[in-house]
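BUG: 3D viewer hangs when loading the predicted structure for this chain

Environment: internal workstation, default settings.
Expected: structure renders.
Actual: progress bar stalls at 90%.

Input used:
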Amino acid sequence: MRNLLSMVFFCGAVFCLYMLGLTAFISTQTVVDKWSALLAFSAASAVLTAVGLAIARFKNWRLKTGMVLLFSCLAVCGVMFVILAAPSTPVIAGAGNIMQLKDFGDYQTGGTTLLLLLLVSGALVIWHTRVSKLKDKIAALKQRVQRL
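C-alpha cells produced before the viewer hung:
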C-alpha cells in the first residue's frame, strides 16, 4: 500500500515536470507569466516528489528521483518530436486549450530545461549505482568478519 501511494505522488510529480517542460517551449506567453508558471510547476513537482519519497521512507531516493526526472524528460521529448514531425497535429494543453506548432518556439529555454532534467537525472542514477555497489561491498566485508 505504501509503494502504491508513493507511486501516485511520483506520477503527479512526473505530470508537473512534463508541464514544466512543455511550458518552457512556449513562446507566446509573456516572460513574467512563463517564469511564474515554470516556478509553480517546479514547486509542485518538488513537493509531490518529497511526499512520495517520505511515504516510501526515502528508500532509494536517488534512483526514484532520477527516474521521475527521466520519465518526465522523455515524455516532453516525445511530445516535442511529434509536434516537430507533424506540425499540423494539435496539442491539448491545460483547460482544453488547443495549441499549434507556432506556440512552441522558445527552443533555447525548452532545450536548456530538458538538458538540465536529463543531466540531473543521469547524475542521480549514477550516484545511486555507485552507492549501491559500495553498500554491497560493505555488506560482503561484514559477512567475512562475522565468519572469522
